[in-house]
Amino acid sequence: MNRNKMLNILQTLANGVNPITGEIFDEDSPYQDVLITRALFEAFIELKGKEDKNDKNSPRRKRGVTNDQEIILDTSSQRLLKTLKDWRTAVYLAIDKPAYVVMTNMVLQRIAHYKPTNNEELLAIQGIGPSKLKQYGDEILALVSTHNDKN
């Protein structure tokens, strides 16, 4: 992993900002350490994913939608992202695992941006593999479809 990128992530966290989402950590939160640790972990996963994607010999290199640029969501996509995050919260609470185990924020952002309508399109999104598709594909596609019907 690039040392400068690593230092940038650590500096951003030291300033109380999530390097992935840009959210500011609440200093009074009893969960601040957990939030910072989770943000650091997600940031490292994102960096590792970018390095693997650029390495033509990497076995983890993904097909389909990549994260070469920052995803900018319109108002409709932001509403879908909120719905997807609420869904993820229900899922991770039910299985008693961290949220990022269900799906990272970046994957949810990609889904909200591209709004897949079938398994093939969902599978093309980086971060969705056969296992995630089998576990959550129908639920995600139903949420996207409901959102699309309302908008």
Brief rundown of the structure:
This protein is mainly α and 151 residues long. The protein is 64% helix and 0% strand. Helix 1 (3-14) runs antiparallel to helix 2 (32-54), helix 3 crosses helix 5 (105-114) and helix 3 crosses helix 7.
Task: Identify the notable features of this structure and list them briefly.
single chain; 151 residues; mainly alpha; DNA polymerase, domain 1; 2 domains
What is this structure's SSE topology?
Layout: H1 3-14, H2 32-54, H3 75-95, H4 99-102, H5 105-114, H6 119-123, H7 130-150
Structure in words:
This protein has 151 residues and is an all-alpha fold. It has two domains: 1-61, no CATH class; 69-151, DNA polymerase, domain 1 (Orthogonal Bundle). Helix content is 64%, strand content 0%. It is built from seven helices and no strands. Helix 1 runs antiparallel to helix 2 and helix 3 crosses helix 5. The relative contact order is 0.11. Residues 57-68 have low confidence and may be disordered.
- Share of helix, binned: 55-70%
Helix-strand string? HHHHHHH
Q: Largest sheet, described in full?
A: none
What coarse outline follows from CA principal-axis ratios? globular
Number of helix segments?
Answer: 7
Task: Note the beta-strand portion.
Answer: under 5%
Structural class of the secondary structure composition? mainly alpha
User: What would CATH call the homologous superfamily of the largest domain?
Assistant: HRDC domain
Please give the domain count: 2
CATH class of the largest domain: Mainly Alpha
- The CATH architecture of the largest domain can be given as Orthogonal Bundle
What is the name of the CATH topology of the largest domain? Answer: DNA polymerase, domain 1
Identify low-pLDDT runs: 57-68
Mean pLDDT: 79
Secondary structure: number of strands:
0
Task: Give the end-to-end Cα distance, rounded to a whole number of Å.
Answer: 41 Å
**Rg over alpha carbons:** 16 Å
